[in-house]
Each structure stands twice: as C-alpha cells, then as structure tokens.
Automatic annotation (TrEMBL):
Species of provenance: Parathalassolituus penaei
Residues annotated as domain GGDEF: 461-596
UniProt entry keywords in alphabetical sequence: Membrane, Transmembrane, Transmembrane helix
Coiled-coil ranges per UniProt: none
Cofactor(s) the protein requires to work: Mg(2+)
The protein's name in its UniProt record: diguanylate cyclase
C-alpha cells in the first residue's frame, strides 16, 4: 500500500536533484581583474569517506544528493569528507588561467578534479603537501584552472580535514588579483606581528623594571596570541612544513586566554573586590588550559574550543561590565578592549554567513580586533603607570604639607630614614659585588674594576693580573663532597685576600674554583712574586687531597701591561689565562708569567 507513495517520494527527490543541478550558476571568469568570492557552490558531505567523483555514476549521484551553499561556509559539526562543485565559463576570446583559492590554511588535504575528455585531471594541496610541491607555492591552498575561449568547465573540490565548525571561503581569482592578495595579506600580518611585538617588548621592559606580574601576564598573553595569529596565517609552515607542528600551533590561543584572565584578575583586583566573579574567572582560565592540553593531544578537540570561544569572550566581557558598574578602576577600559575583540569575531562570523561584504578588512577583522584589544590593554597599563606616578606626586605633596606642620620633627625623621636608606643601599650595592660563598668580590665587580683601569688617569702605569685555579678540584669534590669543596674554596679565598696590601688591589672569584687578582702599579715580576707567596701559603694550609702532593694546591698565571701601550683589558685577561694554562700543562702547583717562554722556569720577584 505504501509503495506508490514511496515511488512518488523517490521521483520527487530526483526532481529536486535535477532542479539543483540546473540551478547551479555558471560564472564568467574572462575578466582579467576577477575576484569571485561570493558565489553558489554545490556541496556534498560524505560521512563514509568512500565517495569518489571519478567513479561511474558519481557525478549523477553528486547532483542528486548535493545542496547549494555559498562560497563562504562553515564546516558542519560532524566528521566528513566534503565535496564542492564550481561551474566556470570563459566568455572571452583568449584562453584564461584562473586560481581556485581556499582562503584558509587548515584543510589537511584538498583535491581538485576536472574532466579532460574521458579522463580526470587531479591536483592536490593542503597541509599534507609541502608548500614547494603544491600547484601554487602559497600558504593558502590554491589550484590552477585553464579555460579556452567559450569553454565551460565544472571543477570538483574534495576537502578532508579533522577540523569542524571552521570557516572556509572558496574564491576564484585572476592571476593579478591572486598575487596582489598575497602581498596585501602579508603586509597585514606583518604589520600585526610588528605592532604586537613592539607592544609586548615594551611591557616586558616595564615588567623587568617594575616586577609587577600584571605586565608579565600581558606579555605572555601577547606572545601566545602572536603565536596563534602565526598559526591563523600559516606562517610557521615557512619555517617548518609539518602537519604535526600546525596542529600544535592551535594550542597557543587557549593559553593566551588563560593569561588574559590572569591579567584581568590582577588589573581589576577581583579576588578582593568581587570574589564570586573571581572564582568564575579562575574556572574559565582552568577550562581554557584544559582545552589547550586536549587540543595538543588530539587536534579534533578544537571543535569544543570553537563552540566555547564566543561564550567565553562574552563571559569575560560580562565580568568587566559588572566590575565597571561596581566602579572598579579601569574596568570600563578593559571592557572596551574586550569589545574590540568581540567586534572582530562578530564581523568574521558576519562575513561567513553573508551579512557583511567579503574584503581584506572584514576577512581579517578578527586580527584587527585583537590588535586593537592589545593596544587598548597596553594603554590601560600605561595609564596605570601614570596613576602610580600621580599617586607618588600626591604622596610627596602630602609629605611636604606634613613637613610644614611639624618641620623640626619630620625633618629629623626624614633625615634618619634617608640615612637608613643610604646605608641599606650602600649595603645592597656592596652585596651585589660580593660572592655569597667566599665573601670576596664577584665576577661582575672584577669586570667593572678591570675596565676602570683603562681610564686616562692611569695612562703609563703598570698593571698586573693574576689568574689562579685550584688543582684537580673536580676530583676533590667527587672524593670529599660539595660541602667540603665549598669549605676548601673559602679557605683558599681567605689566603688570597689576606695578602693584598695596596689600595686598588682586587681579589675576585672569577668562577667555580677560579680566582682573579687585579694589581695596579705592579709589574709582572711583582705579580709573580705575590703569586708564589700565595701558592706556598695555600700549600701550608695542608688541606688533604688525594693526589700527587697529598694536599690542595693552586696554579697561577700572571700577565701585565702598561696602561695605554695598546693592550686591551680582554687581551690582558687572555694572556693571564694562557699563563695559567701553561702552569697547568707543566704539572700544576706553580706560577707562570705570560712574558716567559714555554720552556722557562717560573720566576719569583718582589711585589710592591
């Protein structure tokens, strides 16, 4: 009984398929300035993955089962292989070559099929194909289609990708438009890269100067967002053409959101002012971090990130607006920045659903909105710095008023506090130049003092430099332990420091078990004499050591120059280091000067 109805339904379905086939427009591509980005396509989602347009009867099946879609479309939320048909015609009098461009880099594999008589021609592109092997060597997949005068051609595009709910646009372009588009896109991306990098670096320097974590959160937000835009444009493929790398590059956008939330919490002081909303913000940060890990494990999980992207952005905007209503400082400015980002995201959605025209501005509205948000947040931080400066000025004005009321008492108090601060600063300055283990000066102090010796006031004066190193110290550490090694270094440093007699003499721990001594107004002979005394005094400590001497010993290298004779500080250090190497190579526990030949004995002379 139901069979006639079934036949009628099948007939109706075939009629709908025929009408769809007849209703697919054919687009004239003869214009040399063609940029066709708003057109009708026939689309088929093959969930089995078995459909092949080259099989007998496949074209007829495609025409009966496909649907009409716009060239700007969103992939459905289920996994499938997607087929598209485009019909082109050359109404001109000369052959034309046109580019079929997919305005996204995320398709894993793309194949374009066109008939050549009874055969099919195939071109392959997408992430699985290296850029150098694609039909056009471009980041976005693009195919070449040739049409003779008055020729009509149907081309079939097969798209395979693990991504779902992604926005794609298929365009047909003339060569000039295609190449100009690549240039314009590159300029836009690199403008964003440059601007975002400059803003991030500026705030990194602010963090380095102020040590306020809010600047670090901003920098990390900017860096991760910069990486996400690199992935959006596919520019990482120019460095390493890797499918795995591309999938990993989908992770940074999640962590940029995490650091944006941390930035917002610290900026608005949510834990103190709005603890309930702060817990919501923490939940969003945790969710985005978890999604980032999930996407790193399996890129198909990006589907859930796309679903949650707009709700998360709206929630952050809602928190900012509530904080603004609660009169929290800078909440309104943060909300404006979030509106820029949401505006860019909304404009991109509007382009994909056909509500907004497709052009360079609208297609990259997301990046423009993100850059405006970064700029807005940077201005907030600049305003914050200015506010801190004003607060400091107000504090100083209040202090002056208090001083006018209690001049004598406060003057004394300020003098005492100033003296304490000076002492503390002096102590800090001193500590910054001391080695924490030995108490002698550190490498930084050594470099500074050696450089100062080349000041014009010291021209013509002799200068000696001693480099010394504990012999077989690694073996000592391995035998007696690092604590004993530290004690040994302290004992040796005490000996080296105790023998310095003149103002300007410097003893520094150069690194590890190595020390350096700067001896102004001292010749090489004087330096050798001092080094020999120090060598013997270290031996006299009789620190046990498994070795040839049975006790700890030190090797010395001495070099000298006359300031202004053309010798640079680095050269003097190199000469002393070579002399130390000579001491090591001759058996250790000895003193060698740089003026001696390799076969000469080490000499002892007067120091002073």
């Amino acid at each position: 009984m139901n069979r006639p109805w079934l036949l009628l339904l099948l007939l109706l379905w075939q009629c709908i398929g025929i009408s769809l086939a007849q209703g697919l427009p054919e687009y004239d591509v003869s214009d040399q300035k063609l940029d066709l980005h708003s057109m009708q396509l026939r689309a088929l989602s093959d969930t089995s993955g078995q459909f092949d347009i080259r099989q007998p009867g496949a074209v007829q099946r495609f025409e009966s089962e496909s649907r009409l879609v716009d060239s700007a479309f969103v992939l459905p939320g289920y996994t499938a292989v997607h087929w598209f048909e485009i019909r082109l015609r050359n109404n001109g009098s000369v052959p034309v070559r046109r580019f079929v461009v997919i305005d996204e880099v995320d398709a894993e594999r793309l194949d374009l099929y066109e008939r050549d008589g009874n055969d099919w021609l195939q071109q392959t592109s997408g992430l699985v194909v290296p850029i150098s092997e694609r039909p056009t060597h471009s980041l976005n997949p693009a195919f070449l289609v040739d049409l003779q005068p008055a020729e009509s051609k149907a081309v079939y595009l097969r798209m395979e990708t693990p991504f779902r709910l992604m926005n794609f646009t298929i365009r047909v372009q003339a060569s000039e438009v295609f190449l100009n588009g690549l240039v314009e896109k590159s300029w836009l991306f690199f403008f964003f890269f440059g601007a975002a990098l400059i803003i991030s670096l500026y705030n990194f320097f602010l963090y380095a100067a102020l040590r306020d974590r809010i600047y670090l959160y901003y920098v990390l937000f900017g860096v991760f967002f910069l990486l996400s835009v690199v992935a959006y444009g596919g520019y990482h493929l120019l460095i390493r053409d890797s499918l795995k790398l591309h999938y990993l590059m989908q992770v940074p956008i999640h962590f940029s959101t995490v650091f944006l939330v941390l930035f917002m919490r610290r900026l608005l002081e949510l834990p103190r002012h709005l603890p309930k909303l702060d817990r919501l913000a923490q939940a969003i940060a945790g969710l985005m971090a978890a999604l980032g890990v999930a996407v790193a494990i399996d890129v198909s999980n990006l589907y859930y990130s796309l679903i949650l992207g707009m709700p998360v952005a709206l929630t952050l905007l809602g928190i900012a607006l509530y904080a603004w209503r609660a009169a929290l400082p800078m909440a309104g400015s943060f909300a404006v920045g979030q509106m820029f980002l949401l505006g860019g995201m909304t404009a991109l959605v509007g382009v994909n659903v056909g509500l907004l025209p497709y052009n360079l501005f609208t297609s990259f509205s997301y990046i423009i909105g993100a850059l405006l948000e970064m700029l807005c947040l940077a201005l907030i931080l600049a305003h914050r710095v200015r506010s801190l400066e004003l607060q400091q000025k107000e504090s100083r004005a209040l202090l002056l008023k208090q001083q006018s009321d209690k001049a004598a008492e406060l003057s004394q108090l300020i003098a005492e506090r100033t003296h304490e601060l000076q002492l503390a600063n002096a102590e800090l300055e001193k500590l910054s130049y001391l080695d924490s283990l030995t108490g002698v000066n550190n490498r930084r102090f050594f470099d500074q003092k050696l450089t100062e010796r080349w000041h014009p006031q010291y021209l013509g004066m002799p200068l000696a430099l001693i480099m010394c190193d504990l012999d077989y110290f690694k073996h000592y550490n391995d035998t007696y332990g690092h604590q004993a090694g530290d004690d040994c270094i302290r004992l040796v440093s005490n000996v080296l420091r105790s023998e310095l007699r003149k103002a300007g003499d410097v003893c520094s721990r150069y690194g590890g078990e190595e020390f350096a001594l700067i001896l102004p107004n001292t010749t090489e002979a004087g330096g050798i004499a001092l080094a020999e005394r120090l060598r013997q005094q270290v031996l006299d400590l009789a620190i046990p050591h498994i070795g040839t001497l049975g006790r700890v010993s030190v090797s010395f290298g001495v070099a000298s120059c006359v300031v202004g004779d053309g010798t640079e500080s680095a050269e003097l250090v190199a000469r002393a280091d070579r002399a130390l190497y000579q001491s090591k190579s001759q058996g250790r526990n000895r003193v060698c000067g740089s003026a001696l030949d390799a076969d000469d004995d080490c000499r002892v002379a007067e120091y002073g």
